[in-house]
Amino acid sequence: MIDFHCHLDLYSDPSAVVAEVVRRRTYVLSVTTVPSAFEGTAKLAPVGGRIRTALGLHPALAAKRIGELELFERLLPQTRYVGEIGLDASRDHKGSFEAQRGVFRDILGICGRAGGKVLSVHSRGAHAILLDELAAQMKGNLPILHWFVGNSKQIARAVEMGCWFSVGPSMLASKAGRAAVAEMPMGVVLPESDGPFAMIDDKGLMPWEAWNVTAQLAQVWNAPIELISARMEENFRGLVARAG
Ligand code: MN
Fold first, then answer.
1. N or C: where does the chain have the smaller number of CB atoms within 10 Å of the terminal CB?
2. From CA 23, how far away is CA 75, in angstroms rounded?
3. Is this structure's pTM higher than 0.90?
C-alpha cells in the first residue's frame, strides 16, 4: 500500500499512526508544512522503513513563515523529498498570494540548484499560475501535483512538462475531482490520503486508506482494480528508483 501525501505529524497521536503504518507495511510520503517541523517529523519514521519525510513550506503558511526559508535551504541536503509546497488562491489565502508566489519561486530556485528532488505540490485555485512557475524552474526535479483539479488543458500541459499526480479518496468523492483524474495517464498517478486534513464521513483519512482510491480509479478509468493496483505499485517503484 502507498500513500504519497500524508501529514503524519498532524494526527492527534502520530506515534500510534506510525505504528499502524509499520504493521500494515504502508509506504508513506510524510509531508510537512513548515521547515521547523521537519526534524521532529523525520524522527517519527523508523530508520530503514517505508516512510520518507519531505521538507515543506505550505502555501497557507508561506507568508507568515517566510523567515524559515533559510532553514529550508539548510535542511534540504537531508532529503530527496520536498513538500508540501505550492500556491493557494482560494478565498482564505488569496490575500497572501503574491507573498506565496515569492516564497514558491525561492523554493523552486533552491531545489533547482540542488537537483534530483521529488516535489509534492499544492495548487488550489491557482493551477495555471502554478504550472507557469514550475515551467520556469523545474530544473531536473520531479513535481507531483497533489489533488490537482485543473481543467483538461492544464492537465495535458502538466503531463507534457513531466509532472506526476497524487490523488486520493476525497478528491475522487467530487465530480470535478473524478473529471480531472479521467484526464490523467495511469502511468503518472500515485495514491494519497492527505490525512488528517482530507476527510471521508467527517473522519480524517488514515494513510492506509489512500489505497481505497484504487477502487475509485477502477471506475473512472474503466479498468480492473487488480490492474490499477499493479500499476500504482509499478509507478511507485519507478519513482523510488529515481528518487531513493
Ligand atoms: Mn496536504
1. C
2. 29
3. yes
Handedness of CA 241, 14, 93, 203 (dihedral sign): positive
Per-residue pLDDT of the chain (244 residues; tens, 9 = 90+): 999 999 999 999 999 999 999 999 999 999 999 999 999 999 999 998 999 999 999 999 999 999 999 999 999 999 999 999 999 999 999 999 999 999 999 999 999 999 999 999 999 999 999 999 999 999 889 999 999 999 999 999 999 999 999 999 999 999 999 999 999 999 999 999 999 999 999 999 999 999 999 999 999 999 999 999 999 999 999 999 987 6
Distance from Cα 111 to the centre of ligand 1, integer Å: 19
Phi/psi for 5 (5° steps) reads -160, 100
